[in-house]
Amino acid sequence: DTAVSQTPKYLVTQMGNDKSIKCEQNLGHDTMYWYKQDSKKFLKIMFSYNNKELIINETVPNRFSPKSPDKAHLNLHINSLELGDSAVYFCASSQDFGGRYGYTFGSGTRLTVV
Amino acid sequence: DAKTTQPPSMDCAEGRAANLPCNHSTISGNEYVYWYRQIHSQGPQYIIHGLKNNETNEMASLIITEDRKSSTLILPHATLRDTAVYYCIVPYNQGGKLIFGQGTELSVKP
Prior knowledge:
The structure holds two protein chains of two kinds.
Chain A: E1 4-7, E2 10-13, E3 19-25, E4 31-37, E5 43-50, E6 53-57, E7 64-70, E8 73-78, E9 87-94, E10 103-105, E11 109-113
Parallel strand pairs in A: 2-11
Antiparallel strand pairs in A: 1-3, 3-8, 4-5, 4-9, 5-6, 7-8, 9-10, 9-11
Chain B: E1 9-13, E2 18-23, E3 33-38, E4 45-50, E5 55-56, E6 61-64, E7 70-75, E8 84-89, E9 104-109
Parallel strand pairs in B: 1-9
Antiparallel strand pairs in B: 2-7, 3-4, 3-8, 5-6, 6-7, 8-9
């Protein structure tokens, strides 16, 4: 199936830990994104990579570090996890930068920090 | 950047058409209107987009007014599975960022 896949789907961890979320797309898209959806259901963009190059870096704490080893992968590493990091994180991709033809989202990773 | 305004919630009877309005009065001439939806606990799903002509695909129809200041997403025969939050977005001048507002929470009822 062509899709955007994220792992893990659920992640429960203690404060202070370091964790990673992986994302892969097999759509041949040039651009990938990370979005965060908080408890109030607002979806906010965090990062965007176009052809492995960081394009968008919103005001996200530097504990969050995206890494794109190739065009098909965009991983999110989070250091020193805090309670406020609890949220659902969505990876997405688009054929071009700006998503002229639409974005495809993954199914999300629900991160719970305890 | 063009902003959008949507009603926070709507109800629709199963089998009837669901008409979801969106105002985007500050839209520029080259900005597209996009619609996405998010079914509970899933990632957002692209539905349709358009510039000035009406558009139709297998999921929905998009009607854009002649002055382009508003649009309506039409789900012709709503089913219970169409219950979701629907987002109207005008992204072109947002530097490649798809910015989600609050959307319209559509409840399709039997």
